Amino acid sequence: MAATATTAALQQTPITFQRTPSLRITFVNPEKLSFSGGLRLQNLSIKLAGTSRRGGGASSAKMADSAAGSYASALAEVAVANGTLEATLKDLDLVDKLFSDSTNFNYFTSPIVSLEQKRALIDDVTASGKLQIHVCNFLNILIESKRIDLIKEIVKEFELVYNKLTETELAVVSSVVKLEAQHLAQIAKQVQKLTGAKNVRVKTVIDESLVAGFTIRYGNSGSKLIDMSVKKQLEEIATQLEIGDLSLAV
Predict the structure, then answer these.
(1) What is the chain's Cα-based Rg?
(2) Residue ranges of E strands in the chain
(3) 94, 125 in Cβ contact below 8 A?
(4) SS3 label, residue 202
(5) Residue 37's pLDDT is what?
(6) For 169-209, how does the pLDDT look when each residue is reduced to its tens digit (9 = 90+)?
(7) How far, in Å, CA of 125 to CA of 128, rounded?
(8) What is the widest separation between alpha-carbon atoms in the chain?
């Protein structure tokens, strides 16, 4: 199984993971990664059992989701065993930011770029101390298994596993400008009241299209929305004006 093989490749000395009884509010603000030098990592390889890269459509998408979930669960298992679940989540925030850059993503997924060249960049990250060793090893596993194209899906799946393990609700707050910490704390407490979650993790996104104000997405896959943006208010005003014009025309 993929999860078993990945765990075996990353396993370190187990440490018991304990949850915090009180509400914990975490603000996500990833740093930028930089590449500078060349520490060599141990050669790693893994095969994804029971899956195939052939095919297309919904079947392939479902297979990719399953693979991403397996890898995320394996990484989470290692992180819990070593007491590094929080640190690993922060590392994956950095990784997500790195691969959100299309240039970086295309570089690591390109069949033209050699394995050694890709590993060299991961070595740079390791040398910089930005990421934990087991996270860098994990990236190497994905590169050598030719599954690095799943990295963003894996990050999302890892967040779901983390949320479940720590009874955490993720709230994505979008705003035109960066909100103050006390405002984010108030938002987190409100989300806790609405969901009953033990912990709330706030991820901030800058969205200039909102004009002013903010939106909050939470719930299963961000299914619930609180819209406090000026954009929303303007849309409602425009709708009311349109209805009023139609009424007058009658």
Answers:
(1) 21
(2) 25-28, 168-175, 199-206, 214-218, 224-227
(3) no
(4) strand
(5) 36
(6) 888 899 888 888 888 888 888 888 888 888 898 888 898 88
(7) 5
(8) 77
Percent of the chain at pLDDT exceeding 70: 68
- Using alpha carbons, list the distances in angstroms from residue 190 to 77, 169, 196, 212: 31, 11, 10, 20
Task: Return the closest-CA partner of residue 110 out of 157, 136, 148.
Answer: 148
Q: Which of 210, 204, 217, 205 is nearest to 233 (CA)?
A: 210
Rounded CA separation 203/172 (Å): 5
> How far is the first Cα of the chain from the last one, in angstroms, to the nearest whole number?
68
Q: Within 10 A of 48 (CB to CB), how many other CB atoms are there?
A: 21
Q: Beta partners for 203?
A: 28, 172
- Closest to 19 measured CA to CA, from 219, 203, 197: 197
Give the C-alpha separation, 129 to 91, whole Å: 11
pLDDT of residue 154: 95
- Other C-beta atoms closer than 10 Å to the C-beta of 22 total 6
Contact 136, 1 (CB under 8 A): no
- CB-count burial class (<10 Å; 0-12, 13-18, 19+) for 176: middle
Task: Quote the pTM value.
Answer: 0.65
Q: What is the 3-state secondary structure (H, E, C) of 162-200?
A: HHHHHCEEEEEEEECCCCCHHHHHHHHHHHHHHHCCCEE
